[in-house]
Design a protein that fits this description.
Layout lengths: L6 E9 L1 E5 L20 E4 L5 H13 L3 E4 L3 H9 L4 E5 L10 E4 L6 E8 L5 H16 L6
Parallel strand pairs: 3-4, 3-5
Antiparallel strand pairs: 1-7, 2-5, 2-6
Length: about 150
């Protein structure tokens, strides 16, 4: 959005990263997954990942012995997880909470800031009220899994 002129950013939350795996995967039973836990596993990367996630993926690939392959998009990644082809690290905002997969917190300080944007000249009262409501929901629920 930095390239779009005349917008105002309204920060909502910082999305954490999670390991997506099958529910019966041993890593799904952990409270948090670390980079060394992925040793010997197959990691899906790519798929239009934002820069911060691509950097995290590359760090993992360089630090430990892990196989990896590119996955086209998030839906393809979920299909590959279900087909026992590997695991993936994804931002929490992609979690549809359907319960089909395990989303285990991944041990990293990195995150993806998520925001709502309005036009700079936006002055309608109901738009600002909406922004305030959404920000309050995220501010008052810091443990919401995002």
């Amino acid at each position: 959005m930095k390239r779009v002129p005349d917008v105002v950013e309204h920060h909502l939350f910082d999305s954490r990263f999670y390991l997506i795996s099958e529910k019966d995967d041993p890593l799904a039973q952990q409270e948090k997954v670390t980079t060394p836990d992925l040793t010997g596993r197959t990691l899906m990367v790519g798929g239009g990942s934002p820069p911060v996630l691509r950097a995290l993926q590359q760090t993992i690939i360089q630090e430990i012995q892990v196989s990896y392959f590119n996955s086209y998009d998030h839906d393809t990644t979920l299909t590959n997880v279900a087909a026992h082809r590997g695991v993936c690290i994804a931002p929490g905002f992609l979690n549809d909470h359907c319960g089909a997969f395990a989303w285990t917190p991944f041990d990293t300080e990195k995150n993806i800031p998520c925001a709502l944007y309005t036009h700079k000249g936006e002055s309608r009262k109901h738009v600002q009220e909406f922004v305030d409501i959404i920000q309050k929901i995220y501010r008052d629920n810091p443990d919401f899994p995002v």
